[in-house]
Design a protein that fits this description.
The structure is a homodimer. In chain A, the strands form 3 sheets. In chain A, strands 3, 4, 8, 9, 10 and 11 form a 6-stranded antiparallel sheet that branches. In chain A, strands 5-6-7 form a 3-stranded antiparallel sheet. In chain A, strands 1-2 form a two-stranded antiparallel sheet. In chain A, helix 2 packs across helix 3. The longest helix of chain A is centred in the last third of the chain and has 22 residues. The first copy, chain A, folds into 3 domains: 75 residues, Winged helix-like DNA-binding domain superfamily/Winged helix DNA-binding domain (Arc Repressor Mutant, subunit A, Orthogonal Bundle); 157 residues, Beta-Lactamase, CATH 3.30.450.40; 91 residues, Enolase-like, domain 1, CATH 3.30.390. Chain A contains 12 helices and 11 strands. By secondary structure, chain A is an alpha+beta fold. Chains A and B meet through strand 5, strand 6, strand 7 and helix 10 of A and strand 5, strand 6, strand 7 and helix 10 of B. The structure holds a DNA duplex.
DNA sequence: TGTTAGCACTCAATGAAATGGAGTGCTAAT
DNA sequence: ATTAGCACTCCATTTCATTGAGTGCTAACA
């Protein structure tokens, strides 16, 4: 059996209606409220075909049809017409507090949540490579050393280091010189034993301090990126009857609480072909495609934002499968453009 | 009418039972399952009195009684016998990752949530005073300055500062000297125009750099503490039928999402008399006592942890009014002791 | 041959009525 | 002062009939 033009139109009508109402949709509705001018009986026949083809499902014998995951997928892939969302208001708010990145991201999450009525999460940026650009050791008090490390992406890390006994100013200057000349430009992977040995040789005395300092540096570089996740509107989930069952809702909202799941989420394989939108990398995951068990009744739309080369994070919107893909993708698209601008200016 | 010994015993029995079941409790239950050896009729009479006194409420004519806020309050204030909770397991976990404070706090939230089955929040520490202990300016690249500020509580802040044109090394040394001698030990409030003027005089040239640097310092000191809030187990709310109504649940869980409400919460007036437990400052807020509208059907138990003098944060547990106060207070108590230890060692 | 009207059938949802039971208040007896 | 007993109330649960949206199938039609 083939999926001819008419079947497609009917499928589209079914999905559209279902997105609206969340109720199974029957043949009569389609017959009346579509421009096909077909009787309900005809629609019924077509629907039977569509069901056989796996695009729609009948929850029980005498009910209407609802889209299957396969149906949604087809809809998202081929039938979505891109509208440009309305993201005017956010822009100003963001530019005001252009300072702190975490504020911005939190704001973005909140904006999307209130505008779409779904739950949202925004992950903080990850840095792809971490190389040392500059190291400085300073003696703050007699028995406290401050280690400051500047990475090549201008991220600054610091760590206090308690000392057994004071260390001479002269020695600190020497240490700084050695560390900078030896380590600058190096990745953590490059800091092998040979390099460490080389440093130690030059220091002679105070080798144990070098140990501590190198340990701090190592930790800093390897350190799991703090993997901040900003969420908002998780309770929107409760607005959709098909998700608001207590166990389901608890699972979904709980997942938002567990930052760990973001790991999985960030690692989701990109769809073949690069997703809906090449520039902003917008992707849609339906039901089990999310790979997260507790999300099997949800859909998830993600986008990737880039702050600069090699520094990117993700934005995700989670809602019921019947989420308004059209609006979500539209909003995300226009939001991403705004973000691009803002980050460009910031730099 | 007086609240004699027997009435008190009965009230206690009613509340205990209600905490367990969440159902209105009737006279017969108390008569059977308490050691009072009274018939249900007698209990009924006493219950009528207790109701008149405002300690219990009858949801409808032919139902049992449930405790009123006043009843809970009496219970919490006078009838709670402190048990020592079981907090063995947490200790080890915490000591492992003793490094990062935010990890610890998140862990604490999670621990409490899973152990009590209520929703929990832990606020990051606030610093009462912020004085400058040490300032350092460094030139990282030709046109980039790094400003590092160490506060007297050993918190380190840093900020990159772009430059118009390079600045001589010599000048930086001088700047560092001036800044440290002038500003060390100063609070932000002390940094008035006079001080600033004094610095500028000493610098002469490069005054505009001083401006930028001072701005950075000012921002750092004034900066709203990031007011981190770690939450866990918010979905536990859904486990209690009296809270899991969709609107209510959404309000409560939503409140956990809004960091803003933590502001109010942190500012809650201490109860007269210092709360249940002098050492750890454990406080119980019942229903409207929380001052947060969306929490009017909840109770909230809070404790204050101290990392060092003047650096403290709060831990809160939110559940239904019929929460197991006994266990919660017990657990909190013993947790706080553990935390005290850990923070002491860290220092 | 594709479309449609018509009809019998299914089944979830809704609502009304019946039932059961937990609990109370009151009274009279102990 | 306590208790047994009884009538009464009211919520919760079950039962049952009804409704209506929706289907599949068949026969008629263009």
């Amino acid at each position: 059996m083939e999926l001819d033009k008419r079947k497609l139109k009917i499928l589209q009508a079914i999905i559209r209606t279902y997105l609206d109402t969340g109720e199974p949709v029957g043949s009569r509705t389609i017959s009346k409220y579509s421009d096909l001018n077909l009787s309900s009986a005809t629609i019924r026949n077509e629907m039977a075909d569509l069901e056989e083809l796996g695009y729609i499902i009948q929850p029980h014998t005498s009910a209407g049809r609802i889209p299957s995951d396969k149906g949604y997928r087809l809809y998202v892939d081929t039938m979505l017409d891109a509208k440009s969302g309305e993201v005017e208001s956010l822009r100003e708010e963001l530019e005001e507090k252009a300072g702190k990145l975490d504020d911005i991201l939190q704001q973005v999450a909140k904006f999307l949540a209130t505008n779409t009525n779904y739950a949202t999460m925004v992950s903080g940026p990850r840095y792809q490579t971490k190389r040392v650009k500059f190291i400085q050791i300073t003696s703050v008090e007699d028995e406290q050393l401050l280690v400051v490390i500047v990475l090549d992406n201008n991220v600054v890390k610091n760590q206090m280091l308690p000392l057994e006994k004071p260390i001479e100013e002269e020695m600190i200057v020497k240490l700084n010189f050695i560390l900078n000349t030896t380590l600058n430009g190096l990745d953590v992977l490059d800091m092998n034993l040979a390099v460490i040995q080389k440093i130690k040789e030059q220091v002679g005395k105070h080798a144990q301090i070098i140990d501590s300092v190198l340990e701090v540096i190592g930790k800093t570089l390897v350190e799991e990126d703090d993997l901040e996740v900003y969420t908002s509107g998780t309770t929107n989930i409760l607005k959709y009857p098909e998700l608001s069952d207590k166990t389901k809702a608890a699972e979904i909202i709980g997942a938002f609480e567990e930052k760990q799941i973001m790991h999985n989420w960030l690692g989701l394989p990109q769809k073949d072909g690069g997703g809906l939108d090449e520039t902003h990398d917008i992707q849609v995951y339906i039901g089990n495609e999310t790979q997260i068990d507790s999300m099997k009744d949800c859909s998830m739309v993600t986008a990737t934002y880039r702050i600069q080369e090699g520094v990117y994070g993700k934005i995700g919107i989670v809602g019921p499968k019947r989420m308004d893909y059209d609006k979500v993708v539209g909003t995300l698209n226009s939001l991403m453009s705004q973000l691009d601008d803002i980050f460009k200016n910031k730099k």
